[in-house]
Structure formats: C-alpha cells, structure tokens
Design goal:
682 residues; alpha+beta; Nucleotidyltransferase, domain 5
Length: 682
C-alpha cells in the first residue's frame, strides 16, 4: 500500500492532495498558510491528512511540492544581498535593458530597480568572442581581490554572467573556482549553467534573479526536508517547475528561478487530465485563490509554452507554461480611489489578517466578504465547518468602507465588488486568449482554486464560453495536478545561423550532445531508457527580429525535409500570433532546445458510479442574484453521482470550494466527477 502526496502553498491556504497509487482513491485537506515560514503549513498539512485518513506516513512513496518561496522573494524584494560579476563595459546591462518604457504614455513611469544594486555590479577584465575564442584572458589575482571585497561587504550570493560565456564557459568556471577558494560561504550562480543563450540582458537578468532567491530557497528546502524526515516521510522531496515538470529538491536549490510559477503549473496539468477524460480539448483555465488569479490556455490538448516571462519588471528567460497572473483573489481588498470609483486589489488581506469575515483581525472589505454577504458562501461551512465566519462584522465594515461613502446599500456594494473583480479577471484572461489570437468563444472555461467556481458563471458568460468545467476538488486542483507530472529538464544551445546556411552536421552534433547530457541527468535520477523521452525544438525568427518562436520537430536527427517543414510551421505560427507572415524573408535559427522527460507511472482513476438521481438538497438559503435575493437549493457535492443533473439557481458546497450555479443554467456530473455547467443564457 503506497500513496502519493502533493502540497501546493498559496497566499491564504496550503492545499494537500493524497492519492492511493493502487486504487486512485483521493483524500484532500486545506490548512491556513504560514507566511513567516511556509514549511510550517506544509508539515501541518501532512499531519492533517494523515490524521484524517489514518495512514502510516511511511507509506508516502512520492512527495511533490509547489512552492511560492522564490516568487514571493522576488515580488517582495526579500532576497539575499547579491553581487554580479560581468565583463568590463557591461556593468549597466541590467539598468539599460531594452530601453523600453514600462508604461508608454506615463511620463512619470519608472523602471523597477534591479535585484543587484549598482555598487555590487563588478566588472571583470576578460573577453570572449562570439565564436568562443578567448580575446582577453582572465586574471586570477583580480578575482581573488574581488572575492575579498565581497566577503568584507557581506555579500551572500554571487551571479556570474560574462559576455559570450554561452559559447565558452571557461572563464565563468575559473571565477567560481577562485570564489570557492577565497569565499566558500558565498552562493555562486553561473549564467552558462542557468541559461546558455545569447542576449546579454535577458541572460543577466535571469541569472541575477536566480542568485537573488537562491539562499532563501535553499534554506527553505533544507528546513522542509529535515522536517519531513522528523515526522517519518521517507520519500525524496520533489519540486514543481514552471514548465509543468518536476525536479528534485537538490536541483531546485541550484536553479530556484525555474520554480517561479511552481504552484499554478500544477493546475494546467489537471487541465490536461480533463482533456484526456472529456470531449473538450480547447480550454481556458482560471485558478483563483485567496491572493491572485492565474490563467492559462490549452489548445487542441496542448498547453501554451513560453521561454520569456517577467517578474517585478525583470525578465526571466526560462521555459515555462504561459500564464498570466493578476492580483485578484478572494482576499483582494475593495477600496474607493480619489475619484470616487470602486476598485478591487491588487492589495490582498492574504492569510494574515485575512478577510473581515474570517474574524482574525482584518478590517478591510474583500471579495470573500462580498460573497458571504450575498449568500454565495456559507458563513458556517468553510473548511467543512472547522472555520466559522463573522457575517455581521463583514456587513458592518462593508457599510462603513464602501456602501455609505458611495450612497448605496450593503448588497449593492457587495455586488459592485464582484462586478469589478470579475472585470479585472476578464481583462487578464484576454491577455492569454484574444491578445494571442485565440477566440475565447471557442474554448471551455475550467475554473478551480478556492474562489474560482464562485465566479465562474459570470466570467464564462462574459467571455462567451458555452460551458464551464469544475474539477472534482477545485480548491486542491493544483496539488492534484502535480501528482500527474513527470520529471522534466530543459536544455538549450545557441546556434545563430540563417536556415539556408545551416550545416546540418553541426546542428546534429549539438542535438546529440544535448541528448547525451539529458540522458545522463535522467539516468542519474533513476530512470531507465524506456522511461526517457526526448523532444527537440528550434527557435526561429525572421532575420534580425528581436524575438523567436519555438518550433517543435520530430526525431533527434535533423534533415533537409524536417528543416523545411519547421520553416513552414514557423510562418504559420507567426501569422497566427502576429497577424502576418513573410515567406520571402530570410529565416534564422537562433537556439536548439531539447526537452527531456522522465516518465513517472500514472495513477488510474476509475469512472464514478452512475445514477441520474440528484441528491436531496440541504436547507436552502437566500442568495443574491441580479439585484435580489432568491431562495436557492444547497447541495453537498460529495453526494452527486455521475449523470446527476441540477437546474440553477443552486449552490454546491464541499471542503475546498463553493460552486455557484446562476438562474437559467444547468449543471451535470460526468463520469469522472467533473461538474459541467451549460450556459444557456451566454
């Protein structure tokens, strides 16, 4: 008997999913997050799920964790004191960037301050040509003097990013060796290991961000590994990556920048399970928790990927699932701006003090408070009744802070908050749909997170979706998705050449070297050859374009026919994304990428027992819809069988979320426990 356990740390709650490997039986739990040390909530969650189920903690064979430690360190500017060593003349690359304005029409807009202050950006006398040839050798004595300076100034972490080191990493390795000899306490990050690609700004920014969060992430993971061993967990700790794959805790300590979107990526994997088990292959996912909303798109059963994201104004150029995050969650605070307009977020009440209704000291009205006031969330049921909510205090604060200043009723104020936060979320969804050439009317909306199913119908109707899909455990979906992930490593090498001039033998030599490195890494992690799957992609662009498109190819050996097909695919993808293509233009190959997957055996989930009868409703309650309270049946979702049909209005309650069905909609449960809401009035 063995179990897999997934833990997703959010801003308000930490979610736990436990799955029996042989039967697919699922158990879930939620515990409040502990922002001062997220590992405490992880251990609390493990103890909670073990207490609920009575299992022996030694039977947990696989432990996967989605962490927000790296993300929060970047967002809150609470990383380590970091220095950057770079080639002489490139000290201000982080400051100069791409010379783009953060807000085009705001004359007072200012760029975010880099993670490394200018006094700790240190120039090194060395130079390597673009072909990898050493032009100016490194002076070891200069590096020793720099090491002594870093030690005197109390620098904890050092980022090393030399120009053209992606072609020749000799000097970066020499600097690391000297630092380890003179200042062994310092953490060191090399750009040639984190991101061996050209484009000095993105490479420098990525390695600086990695170095900035590395000490904090390493300390956190070491504490967590120790705490898990103390309570008897034998499984190695795995960490979710932003690319939808998992890595060992040891790898995450080395490159924590790969975990920036760690938790939300699990939700996309749960979306892929929906693709496999339902007729719906085109999905927009929304993950709305207590602090933020993460949204992504799956087209024809495949998530969208990107190699470029931005955190706090700084690019991070690493492969990841393409998502858009906005500060709209259940804990988002409602406020009135100087012009008298109602605003919601991005400030959040978080886990501490939380929404007013949580009765933990919060005194600012939030989205959750609005839902409680309107009857959409049961004030006596949250977390299976373990957490009671203070409705009267929520109404009092709503009246004082929003309703009275605007001259409206408490219910109108609460409904206004929901309309504003929904509008914010819809704008965010359009970033990954309409702005990328996708019509949301052709997609189904998958809503999860603790708050997602509460808002799903209104968002789906506004987007024009025909149906909404709510997974069986929406509030634990990211933790569940992590348990469906494989180990994944990404490898890349810059090969800058026109496609017509590309020497296929040279390109295949690069692919073979990357494949050998990938297999070696996965063999080291215990995977057999039959469990290893490799995928090659080419980064293509029109001559002198600033950005590339990632084009997958079949097989591990490139030939003329495959290259021609890749170019045709590039033109097609360019037209879809940007609205035009130029077949007569020269196409350049920029990078060769290789994705290495170590396949983990998948858990089989049986179909649920059928039965068209609907569970008897619990006592109904008054719920506010379209300007008035309506008597609304309430159901315990756990009692719904496959094929059960419910007409709206209705409320479904469960441990981890609440689902709101509006008047005029119909909901039915499918064979795998998903709730399908048909938007007849969309």
């Amino acid at each position: 008997m063995s179990y897999r356990l997934g833990v997703d740390t959010g801003g308000t709650f930490t979610d736990i999913a436990l799955i029996h490997e042989q039967t697919g039986e699922v158990h879930v739990a939620k515990v409040p997050s502990t922002p001062h040390d997220p590992s405490e909530a992880v251990i609390n969650g493990v103890r909670e799920i073990v207490s609920q189920t009575g299992i022996d903690v030694k039977n947990i064979s696989f432990f996967i964790h989605g962490s927000t430690v790296a993300t929060n360190a970047l967002l809150e500017r609470k990383g380590a004191k970091t220095a950057l060593l770079t080639t002489k003349g490139f000290r201000d690359v982080l400051e100069i960037g791409r010379q783009s304005r953060p807000k085009l029409y705001d004359f007072k807009a200012r760029k975010k301050v880099p993670f490394v202050s200018r006094d700790l950006r240190i120039e090194v006398s060395e130079r390597i040509k673009a072909n990898g040839e050493v032009l100016e050798p490194l002076d070891p004595e200069e590096i020793r003097e720099i090491a002594h300076r870093l030690k005197r100034e109390g620098v904890q972490s050092v980022a090393i990013c030399l120009i053209n080191s992606y072609m020749n990493d000799t000097h970066e390795n020499m600097i690391r060796q000297a630092l380890q000899e003179e200042y062994p306490e310092a953490y060191v990050t090399l750009s040639s290991e984190v991101l061996p690609e050209f484009k000095e700004y993105e490479r420098t920014s990525t390695v600086a961000a990695n170095a900035y969060v590395l000490p904090k992430m390493k300390g956190y993971l070491n504490r967590l590994v120790g705490s898990l061993k103390e309570i008897g967990v034998r499984s190695e700790l795995y960490i979710m990556q932003s690319n939808g794959g998992i890595i060992t805790a040891e790898s995450a300590m080395h490159t924590p920048a790969r975990t920036v979107l760690s938790g939300p990526a699990g939700g996309i994997l749960a979306g892929l399970f929906i693709v496999e088990t339902t007729p719906y292959k085109d999905l927009i996912t929304i993950d709305m928790g207590g602090t933020s909303l993460d949204t992504a798109l799956i087209e024809k059963g495949r998530p969208q990927y990107t190699t470029m994201s931005e955190v706090e104004g700084s690019p991070i150029k690493l492969p990841m699932i393409e998502m858009h995050t906005i500060g709209s969650g259940g804990g988002s605070i409602a406020w009135i701006d100087v012009g008298g307009a109602l605003r919601v977020g991005p400030q959040s009440a978080g886990a501490v003090p939380g929404p007013v209704s949580y009765n933990k000291g919060g005194m600012e009205p939030t989205v959750t408070d609005a839902n409680v006031i309107l009857g959409r969330i049961n004030p006596g049921y949250i977390l299976n009744g373990k957490m009671k909510m203070n409705l009267e205090l929520a109404r009092q604060v709503m009246k004082e802070k929003i309703a009275d200043p605007l001259g409206i009723t408490i219910e109108e104020a609460a409904e206004g908050i929901l309309k504003v936060v929904n509008a914010n979320m819809i704008r965010g969804i359009r970033v990954i749909s309409i702005e990328k050439g996708h019509d949301p009317r052709n997609f189904s909306l998958v809503a999860f997170g603790g708050a997602g199913p509460v808002h799903a119908v209104e968002i789906g109707k506004e987007l024009g979706c025909q149906e909404i899909i709510i997974p069986p455990n929406p509030g634990i979906t990211c933790a569940m998705g992590m348990l469906m992930a494989d180990v994944r490593h990404d490898f890349v090498q810059t090969v800058l050449s026109g496609v017509a001039q590309l020497k296929l033998d040279d390109a295949n030599d690069v692919i073979a070297r990357l494949a050998e490195e990938a297999r070696g890494q996965l063999h080291k992690e215990g995977f057999a050859d039959g469990e290893i799957h490799l995928q090659v992609a080419l980064d293509l662009r029109y001559l002198r374009q600033a950005y590339e498109i990632d084009v997958p190819i079949r097989g591990l050996k490139l030939n003329g026919e495959m290259l021609e097909q890749a170019v045709n695919d590039f033109h097609r993808m360019h037209h879809k994304i940007y609205g035009f293509s130029r077949e007569e233009e020269t196409v350049e190959l920029v990078n060769i990428r290789l994705i290495a997957i170590g396949a983990i055996p998948k858990i089989r989930f049986d179909k649920r027992e059928g039965g068209s009868e609907t569970q008897e409703a619990l006592p109904s309650r008054q719920v506010f819809f379209d300007g008035r309270f309506v008597a609304t049946p309430v159901y315990n979702r756990s009692g719904l069988r496959a094929g059960a049909v419910v007409e709206g209005p209705a409320i479904f309650e469960q441990l981890d979320s609440t689902i709101v069905i509006h008047p005029g909609q119909k909901a039915e449960t499918d064979d795998y426990g998903n709730l399908l809401i048909h938007l007849y009035n969309a």
